[in-house]
Amino acid sequence: RYFCYGCLFTSVTWTLLLFIYFNLSQESQPLKNVPVKGGQSFKYFPRKFQPRFTRSPSWLQGPNQHWGKEEGRKKAAELSPEMGMIFNEVDQEVRDVGYHKHAFNVLISNRLGYHRELPDTRNTKCKGKLYPVDLPSASVVICFFNEAFSALLRTLHSVLDRTPSHLLHEVILVDDNSEFSKYYFIHEELDAYIKKNLPGKVKLVRNAKREGLIRGRMIGASQATGEVLVFLDSHCEVNEMWLQPLLSPIKEDRRAVVCPVIDIISADTLSYSSSPIVRGGFNWGLHFKWDPVPLSELNGPEGATVPIRSPTMAGGLFAMDRKYFNELGQYDSGMDIWGGENLEISFRIWMCGGRLLIIPCSRVGHIFRKRRPYGSPGGQDTMAHNSLRLAHVWMDEYKEQYFALRPELRSRNYGDIGERLAVRKRLHCNSFKWYLDHIYPEMQVSAPNAKAQHPVFVNKGLRRPKVLQRGRLRNLLTSTCLVAQGRPSEKAGIVVVRDCDSEDPEQAWAYDEEQELILAGLLCLDMSETRSSDPPRLMKCHGSGGSQQWTLGRSNRLYQVSVGQCLMVVDPLSHKGYVAMGICNGSKAQQWQLED
Ligand code: UD2
Ligand code: MN
C-alpha cells in the first residue's frame, strides 16, 4: 500500500502551527473567544486570566499567587500607580464588571494576588511594645457574600501570613450562600483551593440560604472552638503584629471587646493608607459615625498607643472572648442581612458591664467602597428593620429621637423582640440614659442629624493640596488644548480640545500633589467609576483620589489611575475636538504637555 509521508508531515506541521497560533493569539482575542472551563467562565480567576504579554511591564508579571510569598511581597511593595492599566478587552471587562459587582477595582485586586507587603502604619512607639507569650488563641470568623475571589483570598492569606501560628486556632469562612456566577466562581474553586493549599486551619461553612452578615457571624461563632473570636470583613488585610495587641487586653479582662484601627484600602487603587485615630459614635438616625478622640483619652505617658474607650464600633472588625460573646447574647438573630448590629452590640457591651476599646497598635486595612454592591433578597431596607429592633430593645425613651427623624417607622412591624428583652433583663443592664451620661456625653439630645463621616475625610480636614504645576494642557498631535466644552462654571460637563490661548484663564489647569487636575480653579478632571468607556468630564473635586487621580508620566501620557487608560484626542481631523480614554499606546494622540 502506498503511504503519503509528505501528507503526514504537512498535516502535522499545520496542526502544530495552528496550535501555536491559537495559543499566542489568545490575549488579543475578543472576550467570547476566551476559553472557559466546563461551560463556566472563570475569567475573574486571576490564575487563569493573568494576561500574557510578550513584553509586559515588570509589575504585571507579578505579584500574584504564582510568585512565592517572599517574591510576591517584594513586588507588591512597589505598587505602581499604573497597576490598573487596561491592555485589552479582557482587562476592561474585568474592571467594569468588577466595579459593577463589587464596587471596587477587581482588576488591580486580581493583579495584586494573595500576598503583598503593607506599609507599617503603627505609631513607632507600638513597635517597642511587648506582649505576653501565653495569650489566648483566636478563631477568626470571616463571612462573605459574593466576594471577589482575590479580595477574599488576600484577606485569608494576610491572616495566615501575619499571625503567629500558636495564636491562630482556626479561620472559619462562612459563605453566605453566594450566588453561583461566572464572576464569583467561589464554590468549587474555593473548596479546591483550600483543600490543596490550606489544609488544617481553614474551615469553610456554607449557609443553605442567605442569612445576612449578622446570623452569618453567629453561625461562624457557633462552629468556633478558640478562646477568642475575631471577626473580619471579607475584603481586609491585617497588618504587622495585628493580633497580639487585641488579645492582650482580653487576657487581662475578659469583658474587654477590642477593635483594631481600620486602615483604608482605596476602592479605586487598592493602595493601603493609615487611618487617623478616631473613635466610634452615632447619630439619631442610628448611623454609625467617626468622632475625634477627646484629649482626655489621648494623654498619658504612652500617648497614642494605649487603648481608647469608644462609644460604638464600626462593626466589621473586632475581637471578643468567645464565652463572653455567648453570655452577652451573641447578636440579635432577628436582624437581617446588613446594618444596625454594630450599634446594637456596642450599646449592649457598655450597658451590660463590658468595655469597648480601640487599640491603636493593631492595624487592619479594609476596602471602603462607595456603595454597597448587593441588596437584600426581598429588596427590604434591612437597616431600618434592624435599627427599629435596636431602638425598641435598648434605647428606652430615647427611641423618640429616632422616630422624630423617621416618623414613618413608628408604626412599622419589627417582629418579636421578647428574647432580646430577656437578654437585657438577665444581664441586669443599665439604662440608655446611663450610657449617654457616662459613655457618650458628647451626644446632643435632639441635635441636628450629623452626617456619617469617613476617616478619609476626617483626615483631610480643610487642607488644600499643594499645586505642583500650572499651565495649559496641550495635545502634541493636534497642538490644541484641553478645555471645558461650554464655559467652565460650577457646573459639571465634558471636556474637548480647542485652539490654545495662553491668555485665556479658562484654559488654565493646575496639577496638585493629590494628582488632581483642576480647571480654572473650579472643577476636577474626573472619570466615571463604573464605565471606563465613558468620556472624561469635569466634576466637583472630591479629594479622595481614584476617579480624579491622574499621572503625568512617561512619554507625556496622561494616565487615569482608576480607569487604567490614557487620555487621547479621538478624531484629530474633526473640528469637534472630542477626547476619550483609550488603551495606552504611546501614540502622539495620547501625548500631552502641561505648559505655560
Ligand atoms: C460596616 C461593617 C460591616 C457591618 C456593617 C453593618 C466595617 C469595616 N464594616 O459595613 O462589618 O458591621 O457595617 O452591618 O466595620 N455579608 C454577608 N452576607 C450578607 C451581606 C454581607 O456575609 O448578606 C458579608 C460581606 O461579604 C462582608 C461583611 O458581611 O464580608 C460585611 O459587609 P460589608 O462589607 O458590605 O459591610 P460594610 O463594610 O459596608
Ligand atoms: Mn466591608
UniProtKB/TrEMBL annotation:
Segments forming domain Ricin B lectin: 464-595
EC number of the protein: 2.4.1.-
Domain of life of the source: Eukaryota
Compartments where located: Golgi apparatus membrane
Cofactor names: Mn(2+)
Main location: Golgi
SMART domains from the UniProt entry: RICIN
CDD domains: beta-trefoil_Ricin_GALNT11, pp-GalNAc-T
First-tier enzyme category under EC: transferase
InterPro entries per record: GalNAc-T, Glyco_trans_2-like, Nucleotide-diphossugar_trans, Ricin_B-like_lectins, Ricin_B_lectin
Keywords, in A-Z order: Disulfide bond, Glycosyltransferase, Golgi apparatus, Lectin, Manganese, Membrane, Signal-anchor, Transferase, Transmembrane, Transmembrane helix
Pfam families reported in the protein's UniProt record: Glycos_transf_2, Ricin_B_lectin
Transmembrane portions of the chain: 1-22
Pathway: Protein modification; protein glycosylation
Bilayer topology: Single-pass type II membrane protein
Record-stated family: Belongs to the glycosyltransferase 2 family. GalNAc-T subfamily.
Protein name as annotated: Polypeptide N-acetylgalactosaminyltransferase
Taxon lineage: Eukaryota, Metazoa, Chordata, Craniata, Vertebrata
